[in-house]
Amino acid sequence: EVQLQACGGGLVQAGGSLRLSCEYSGFSVDEYAIGWFRQAPGKEREAVSLINPREGNTYYSDSVKGRFTISSDGAKNTLYLQMDSLKPDDTGVYYCRSWYGKGYWGQGTQVTVSS
Predict the structure, then answer these.
(1) Which letter, b or e, does each residue of 82-113 get, where b requires 16 or more Cβ atoms within 10 Å of its Cβ?
(2) Which CB contacts under 8 angstroms, 24+ apart, belong to 28-35?
(3) Which residue, of 19, 57, 99, 111, has the fewest CB within 10 Å?
């Protein structure tokens, strides 16, 4: 059974940092892409960052490049998103996603950045 469970969101002031975690099971990140999306109020869900093991690369959206870092710990079956220099525009619900099979989403975790 595929499961993804995200946590680590919270309220932080602009310029602060948060680290999101996504515990996953039921698939291998060595074979299938995994990443983070976010959805701001009134906006569509957008890709933030992902790891593509088959191509051996990572992706960051232009809006987070240089501030966010994605990583995974295979021993802990956990995906991370280190978010630094946070801005109010980073506010939203953050979701982890696996491209295994039909694709799976974790539940979201709320990130709120105050100005």
Answers:
(1) ebeebeeebbbbbbbbbbbeeebebebbebeb
(2) 29/53, 29/72, 29/74, 29/79, 29/98, 30/74, 31/100, 32/98, 32/99, 32/100, 33/98, 33/99, 34/72, 34/79, 34/96, 34/97, 34/98, 34/99, 35/59, 35/70, 35/79, 35/96, 35/97
(3) 57
